[in-house]
Each structure stands twice: as structure tokens, then as C-alpha cells.
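task queued by scheduler; priority normal; single chain, no ligands, no partner chains; default sampling; output format set to C-alpha cells
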Amino acid sequence: TDLKPKETKDIAIAMNGILADVFALYLKTKNFHWHMSGPHFRDYHILLDEQAEQIYAMADPAAERIRKLGGTTLRSIGHIARTQRIKDNDADYVDPSDMLAELCEDNKSLVSSLRAAHDVCEEHQDIATASLIEVWIDESERRTWFLFESGRPADSAGH
């Protein structure tokens, strides 16, 4: 790359944070998918499985982009744990509505982190990484929207 070493380091740091959050969010989404229960089980189970696939699909392009720039990526579960900003949920039971609400907030948090990483990329004129991030922001906002709407109680008119 024609980017300077400090620029690639800045981008790698930002993107490794994204990568760690992607793995944390993926695993939490799968955890909630596996432990979903209640009257909307099927709908929520399928929703979370679809979202987990989309989240996981971000990992390889993010890691490969870091490597293309000459950086190094996360190397282990421990490295992810030290880097992630999205909190784990190890509770024995989580109410389905709480699962949706927590994932909604986590996806919003990921969007904020993606925007911050995009700012780093813009500062260093890394258009390729910024372009990937723009797609991921849109996907994450869509997941947030679906989680929000799925978790809303029906109004008094039955809607």
C-alpha cells in the first residue's frame, strides 16, 4: 500500500476493534438464537440466525483488509476478549424481549464503532476500507431496525 506505516497502524487498530466486536456480537447473537424461547420462538430463532450469518460474514473481509494494508489481525479468543467493546452475556436465562433489546443496543454500538473507524479511514484516505465500512453500517442499522421493531409491544389496536 502507499499508506504510511503510522496510517496503516491506526487503521489496523481501528479495524481490529471492529473485528473483535464482530466476533463478540456474532457469538452473542448465536447464544441468544440457541437459547430463544417463548411464543415467538420460530420467528426470533430464524431472525437471529440470519443476523448471525450476516455478522460473521464481516469477519473475513475485515481481517483480510487489515492484512492487505500490512497490519496484523486478532490471533485468539483471548485477543478478542481483550479487544472487544461489546459485552458478553453469560446469564443462564435471558427473557426473549431482553435478548432483542440487548442485541439492538449492541448493533447500535457497533454502528458507532464503525463510524469511528470510518473517520480514521477518511483521515488517511483509505477509501477501500471506508467503502467496506459503509456497507457494514447499513447492514448493522438494518439489523438494529429489525430488532427494535421485533421487540416492540403490540399497541392497543392489535398492531
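post-processing summary
- The two ends are 53 Å apart (CA to CA).
- Helices lie at 5-34, 41-68, 77-83, 96-123, 127-151.
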